[in-house]
Amino acid sequence: MLNHSIPWDVIQKKVGCGKTMIRRISRKTKMQSKNSAGRHRLLTPREETKAARDIRLGLSKSAADASFGVKKPDRSVNPKTITRTFKRKGLKSAKKKTALPLNNDRQKARYD
Questions:
Q1: Are residues 25 and 51 in the same domain?
Q2: pLDDT by residue (tens digit) across 70-98?
């Protein structure tokens, strides 16, 4: 059953022994369970590094631009995923500050 990566809860019910016993058996036989908790990774570490490098080098201006660079033919990558990647890589996310509006004198000088 461990070969077929059946969850330990199911094995426990069928066999009638505890999870610690199942863990010991899996360690002795060196079986690695494919079951893992948490979010599935959408990007490989190589793709994450590519997106971060594009931002650092200025090839992409935003997370949305970087997501198009990483885009795969079978699925698209959300810019929020790229933003999460940047946080993991230690890059700070920031928006470009908008320039203050010009006063009347400066507007006239620009038009002249």
A1: no
A2: 777 777 888 888 888 888 888 876 666 77
In the predicted model, is pLDDT for residue 3 greater than 80? no
Distances 14 to 9, 19, 23 between C-alpha atoms, Å: 9, 12, 15
End-to-end CA distance of the chain: 82
The tally of domains found in the chain comes to 2
Q: Between the CA of residue 20 and those of 26, 35, 71, what are the distances in Å?
A: 10, 16, 43
Question: Residue 76 in contact with residue 57, Cβ under 8 Å?
Answer: no
Look up the domain containing 67 and give its range.
45-89
Residue 24 confidence (pLDDT): 84
For residue 107, give the amino acid letter: Q
In a domain, 10, yes or no: yes
Q: How many residues appear in the chain? A: 112
Q: How far apart are CA 93 and CA 85, in angstroms?
A: 11
